[in-house]
Specification:
mainly alpha, 5 domains, two-stranded antiparallel sheet, 13 strands, 55% helix
């Protein structure tokens, strides 16, 4: 049986590819004085050139140049230039095989190059096995092997040997992983795992299928059902700590692979592999269900609060006329009393002059019924929904294994009291129950004259538990999203070693004193400069006055008439194309479909048209069932199989990176930017159908549930990241995720968002991680400037300066914690969004959160001072954000099926929809860029002058010429051959 290949053709080519960039050529192939001296000892131009070229090949990529293989042309030119010999000398050298062999022996002796031996093979396989315990990606292992051999000056073997060593390391790692997951299992454990593949009573599916189901609507019935799933997972009682015996990447990979298998497939696995797969499924399944239960509780509490608030408002509105009548009546009574006091008349007679005393007495009783609580708070109405929480609360508190930081000890103590009451069926809260966690808003309901109100005590505790879970003050054993804050970070010992060795992956000086001295010095300089400009009324298009505060003149966004004419002319030339033809053409240019590898074998999809059909079903929101009907010759079963094995978050991400890189390499895209700036924005899509129960409500968008797709777009219009997020979560939480965790070659330096995209925490982390952050802040005049403590006065900036001063001591006290957090985010130990959610959540105000906020205030103040001085900065931000808004319009047009609603209940399927949409829009952007360049060249070829300064106004986001509907056929157009393009539309006569 042939050995399975772990490298694609492209990966094999790239592994030993020679550098093409000028800087890389200089770095690898610049000869030293010693090199030149040794080379010069050889007689004749041909010998010197040949010897030097072989030396360069041995150094990088680290292999021997083949006898019949011509040298890489850029390398040959560079070496010949350094030696001052003609290029033609190589022709003479290349024919002398014996001389080449003698030179190779000499190079090994003089420069220490060694041949690759069997002992080297065994040693490297052993090293690679350690890496294979973390990842089974062939290219990662092969690259590590090549780099390690280069460092040792060992001549690289043939590519097949490199691939064979990597494959053997993967096999060894797999055996180790299976052993680690199965050796701790007892016979009882194995029996319980086998039962997962049995049919569940009263169901058509297995226990495993039932356990992996996602929850439906957030209500008590579905909560109880999901709690039963968690109890079933916990009943396996797997050996404690078994999930820590291997790297999480491999654990997730095994679980994902097992999740695609049928019970029959799993039953046919070799025994050790079957149990290892079931253990991985159990670990991941338990973490997933735990997180889903906590999310359900969060959403149920949210629904109850919204319902109480709505009832409160509805009652007030319904009583509006009666309240108004009472106000008018008491206005008349009050006026009568005022007149009576002035004239000395009887006040009681004054009241009876307006209405009878009996009517007045009745009106007072009516007013008391109409009156709301003094705080005008709806919280008392939460009690009306107590039964909803009570249905699941006892089991919810019983099944979760909670731990707490000191800040939330009171909440956890209250939970323990409730657990005890549930176990004893007690109805009354003990007199000594903890109440320190009860906030003033709850106190009047919880703490009554008769004692502690059981109903509101439990409601308060469950609400505060929700908040504490969000902030990280309470964590849950077995959870993935709600772990101990410390567990998310780089281990303390490793961090200390990295800092000591100056290896922290941060973009700033890690010495606290030096960093603060630099930033505060710059801050004082900028404050003084802007204060002077403001005092002299010399700020560009901005004024600051005590009376009216800050006024910034809006930018002129008009497109020049000449640019609009060019836009219309170029658009009229773009060929009309079907979306299927467009995708096939883009794939011919880039080969992006090769990234959709098989989950198990790593091979490419056998049917490219079928793969593109599956991707398109996601991108246009049609779904697999409808796509099978719209694509002749395709069945739902084939599409579903391909999606299960080839469509994943990482394959979508890799394919998107390929398209973004292709856009980056397009010369015409340079008219819009150089790839160093980007923007991000959220786009809300309504959640309909089965997804309605999973959507969230944001009053900003009305009462309909929805999801937000948060997208990052480069200055060249390439959308390089997309993420499905909760519409109720602030955009700023996800800004860094897109910048840090994409797979393109973009080197973003400056990033733009709107107001929802910034917080002080984001400002701080952006600076630490090497990004210049430039949000467009709405109501900038209401945003405060923070200055250091001291005697400096900035009178002209007075209306904008905060009364609070920067707390530098707090930053110093928590500097190492800040660096550790930033390093953890940079290394991917934890995502930026997860940390920002926890740091920004109520009620956490711990030292790290406050210190990071103070650091962010420095950066936010510096940014605002730059904004006041630079019209160019304002214009860059506006242009960047406009590109994102225009991209949203294209996305809305592409995502048009099913009324443009997200209707998939599974969060995984929702992510696939977002990824497919982003991939399709990236393909459209690339295709339009290529054909816009051809259109402009055609205009120039017809003696029509084109001003290069106007090309920046063209946009690759148009879709009027693209047919997005109809039957989806994957036939290559006869008009387009290999290396050719489809013809432009004819020009209109002048």
């Amino acid at each position: 049986m042939p050995r399975r290949s772990i490298l694609s053709t492209t990966e094999r080519d790239s592994l030993l590819a020679l550098p093409e960039a000028k800087d890389e050529l200089i770095r690898h192939y610049t000869l030293s004085e010693t090199d030149l001296s040794i080379i010069g000892q050889h007689r004749g131009s041909a010998n010197r050139l040949g010897f030097a070229v072989q030396l360069c090949y041995l150094r990088f990529p680290g292999m021997v140049l083949g006898v019949d293989e011509p040298p890489f042309a850029p390398l040959l030119r560079m070496v010949a230039a350094q030696l001052k010999v003609p290029l033609e000398s190589w022709d003479e050298y290349g024919q002398r095989e014996q001389t080449r062999r003698e030179h190779l022996v000499e190079l090994q002796a003089m420069f220490g190059f060694k041949s690759f031996t069997m002992s080297d093979y065994k040693r490297e396989v052993h090293k690679l096995t350690e890496l294979a315990l973390q990842t089974d990606k062939g290219i990662v292992l092969a690259s590590a092997l090549v780099e390690n051999l280069r460092r040792q000056s060992i001549i690289l073997p043939v590519i097949n040997a490199i691939e064979r060593a990597s494959a053997e390391a993967i096999t060894r790692a797999n055996r180790h992983i299976y052993t680690a997951l199965t050796d701790p299992l007892s016979a009882v454990h194995r029996h319980r795992l086998d039962e997962l593949l049995q049919r569940k009573e009263g169901s058509k599916g297995t226990w495993l299928a039932w356990l992996r189901q996602s929850p439906a609507k957030p209500n008590s019935r579905h909560m109880l059902e999901h709690i039963e799933r968690l109890k079933a997972w916990q009943a396996l009682d797997l050996p404690q700590g078994i999930e820590r015996l291997l790297h999480q990447n491999r654990l997730l990979k095994i679980a994902r692979e097992g999740g695609q298998m049928t019970p029959a497939d799993l039953a046919r696995f070799e025994v050790q592999r079957r149990y290892a797969t079931l253990v991985a499924l159990a670990i991941e399944g338990m973490a997933t269900v735990t997180d889903e239960i906590i999310d359900l509780h969060d959403r149920i509490i949210g629904k109850l609060f919204n319902a109480a608030k709505n009832k409160h408002q509805q009652q007030f509105q319904a009583s509006g006329k009666a309240i108004n009548d009472k106000v008018r009546l008491y206005g008349r009574v009050g006026q009568a009393l005022l007149e009576a006091k002035q004239s000395g008349a009887d006040p009681f007679a004054a009241i009876e002059s307006v209405l009878s005393w009996d009517a007045f007495t009745a009106s007072v009783g009516e007013a008391q019924k109409l009156a709301q609580p003094a705080q005008f708070d709806f919280l008392h109405r939460i009690g009306e929904s107590y039964a909803t929480l009570r249905r699941y609360a006892p089991q919810f508190l019983e099944v979760l294994k909670l731990r707490a930081a000191p800040a939330a000890k009171g909440v956890l103590d209250a939970i323990d009291v409730l657990r005890g009451m549930n176990a004893d069926n007690a109805r009354k809260v003990p007199a000594g129950a903890p109440t320190a966690f009860v906030k003033p808003r709850w106190a009047r309901l919880v703490l009554t004259d008769e004692g502690i109100d059981r109903r509101y005590y439990e409601l308060c505790a469950l609400s505060e538990l929700k908040n504490a879970l969000r902030s990280g003050d309470v964590w849950v054993q077995g959870s993935r999203q709600f772990k101990d804050f410390e567990d998310y970070l780089v281990p303390a010992g490793k961090f200390a070693a990295m800092k000591l060795a100056s290896q922290l992956p941060l973009a700033v000086d890690t010495d606290c004193d030096q960093y603060l001295q630099s930033r505060l010095s710059l801050l004082e300089q900028q404050l003084a400069r802007v204060n002077r400009l403001a005092g002299a009324n010399e700020l560009p298009d901005a004024t600051i006055t005590t009376a009216s505060g800050l006024k910034v003149t809006p930018l002129d966004a008009a497109v020049p008439d000449a640019a609009q004419a060019l836009i219309d002319q170029a658009a009229a030339l773009l060929p009309r194309v079907k979306i299927t033809e467009l995708l096939m053409e883009v794939d011919e240019w880039t080969g992006f479909t090769r990234h959709f590898t098989h989950l198990k074998t790593g091979g490419t999809a056998p049917d490219k048209a079928l793969l593109l059909t599956t991707i398109l079903a996601d991108g246009i929101n049609l779904g697999l069932s409808k796509m099978a009907e719209s694509c002749p010759g395709t069945t739902y079963a084939r599409l579903s199989w391909l999606q299960a094995w080839h469509i994943r978050d990482e394959t979508y991400s890799s394919a998107l990176g390929e398209l973004v890189n292709a856009q980056l390499r397009q010369p015409f895209a340079g008219n819009w930017g150089d790839g160093t700036t980007s923007s991000s924005d959220g786009q809300r899509f309504k959640a309909g159908g089965r997804a309605e129960s999973t959507g969230h409500i944001n009053p900003k968008y009305g009462s309909d549930p929805g999801r937000t797709l948060y997208t990052h777009i480069s200055d060249q219009y390439a959308p390089f990241s997309a993420k499905v997020i909760n519409v109720g979560v602030r955009d700023s939480t996800y800004v860094l995720d897109g910048l840090l965790y994409h797979e393109s070659d973009l080197a973003v330096e400056e990033h733009y968002t709107d107001t929802a995209g910034f917080t002080d925490h984001v400002f701080a982390l952006m600076q630490l991680l090497g990004f210049r952050f430039a949000p467009r802040i709405r109501d900038l005049g209401d945003t405060r400037l923070f200055i250091p403590k001291g005697d400096a006065s900035y009178d002209a900036l007075g209306p904008m300066i905060s009364s609070d001063r920067l707390n530098i001591k707090h930053i110093r006290a928590h500097w190492d914690e800040i660096l550790r957090l930033a390093a953890s985010i940079k290394q991917g130990t934890v995502t930026a969004s997860l940390m920002l959610r926890k740091l920004g959540s109520y009620p956490r105000q711990n030292g790290l959160a406050v210190a990071l906020r103070e650091l962010g205030r420095i950066e936010r103040t510096l940014f605002i001072l730059d904004w006041l001085q630079s019209v160019e900065l304002r214009r860059r931000v506006q242009v960047g954000l406009n590109k994102g808004e225009a991209r949203n319009a294209l996305a809305r047009a592409v995502f048009f099926y099913r009324l443009g609603e997200i209707r998939d209940r599974s969060f995984q399927q929702q992510r696939y929809r977002a990824s497919g949409l982003n991939l399709i829009t990236a393909a459209i952007v690339l295709w339009n860029t290529v054909y816009l360049e051809r259109a402009v060249n055609a205009l120039r070829g017809h003696a029509k002058p084109v001003d290069d300064a106007l090309l920046q106004y063209l946009s690759p986001l148009g879709w009027e010429h693209i047919n997005l509907t109809g039957d989806y056929l994957w036939k290559s157009s006869g008009k387009v051959g290999a290396g050719k393009f489809r013809p432009l539309r004819p020009m209109s006569p002048p």
